[in-house]
Amino acid sequence: MKKHNWLVRPSQLGALMSKGRGKEFGDTALKIIQESVLFHKYGIEPPMITSKHLEKGILNEREGMQLAKDVFDWDIDIDAPKVRLFNDYLTGEPDINQSILGDIKCSFSSHTYFKTFFDTEVKNKAYLYQMNAYMMLSGHKQCELVYCLTNTPDHIIADEIQKVTYQLLKEPKYTEKGMEDAFTMAEMEAERRVMSDSIFDKIPKHKRVKRFIIERDDELIEQICERIERARELFDEMFEQV
User: Fold this and answer.
1) Is-contact 88 226, C-beta < 8 A?
2) Mean pLDDT estimate for the chain
3) Tally of CB atoms within 10 A around 52
4) Fold exhibited by the domain 10-151+200-241
5) Are strands 91-92 and 85-86 parallel, antiparallel or unpaired?
6) Which pLDDT belongs to residue 108?
């Protein structure tokens, strides 16, 4: 059987490291392997995952980097192109790989952001895998994971206002009115609700970034490498079968 040195992306590690009940690999981990097999053998792209949360995170990445640079006085060029890194196990593009190694997470709302604000350690194990993977790729001894609270892009705000408007129109106080009046009132209420958790300029900059400095964990990195080796065995088996 031909062996394939499949390279894993750091963002896949949270799923790949997961286990099922009484099974070495859970369904989520198997899905990652199966999708990778189909891509490498037949060029079939994995299903595209889209959401307003992911879209904001991608669109606001540069804004988040600038916010972190301002607050933490980072000596970085936010416009520097990302460089894809490779080793025997992984391939990935850190958000920042200069004087510091960093990853920016732009929260969708104040509620999701402030869930992490009072934390003293990273609770998302997938992010610990991801940051250690970046350290393994780059050679850095620590990585800065930064959550940012940035303003929501206008087109996402508009979409949210429209969604909330139609949700409100189902409420009795709106159904009792004429359609035009009901829609106007619902839209005004929707705009008030959405805007209250979309624009955050009133919050001081230093309160809109939460930083975790993660030290390189060689034991965890060894676990990652061992997991990838075992996943590659399944990858090879599936590659021959499909």
Assistant:
1) no
2) 95
3) 15
4) Lambda Exonuclease; Chain A (3.90.320)
5) antiparallel
6) 97
What is the spatial distance between Cα 207 and Cα 39, in angstroms, rounded to a whole number? 42
Residue extents of the structural domains in the chain: 10-151+200-241, 154-196
Contacts for 76 with CB less than 8 Å, ≥ 6 apart: 65, 69, 96, 98, 99, 100, 102
Q: What is the pLDDT of residue 23?
A: 85
DSSP H helices, 118-217, are 125-138, 154-168, 172-175, 179-196
DSSP symbol at 8? B
* Rounded-to-integer distance, Cα 187 and Cα 206, Å: 33
| Pair 124, 212: CB distance under 8 Å | no
Q: What is the dihedral sign for C-alpha 29, 30, 32, 33? A: positive
φ, ψ (nearest 5 deg) of residue 182: -60, -45
Q: Which residues of 163-173 are buried (b: 16+ CB within 10 A; e: fewer)?
A: ebbeebbeeee
167 CB-side CA count, 13 A: 11
Please report the pLDDT score of residue 1 as a whole number: 64
Weakly modelled stretches of the chain, pLDDT under 70:
1-2
Supply the DSSP symbol for 89.
S
Concatenated DSSP letters for 32-81? HHHHHHHHHHH-PPPPPP--HHHHHHHHTHHHHHHHHHHHHT----TTSP
* DSSP 8-state code for residue 207: G
Q: What is the pLDDT of residue 49?
A: 84
204-217: per-residue pLDDT in tens? 999 999 999 999 99
CA separation for the pair 128, 56 (Å, rounded): 22
Distance, CA of 25 to CA of 5 (rounded, Å): 19
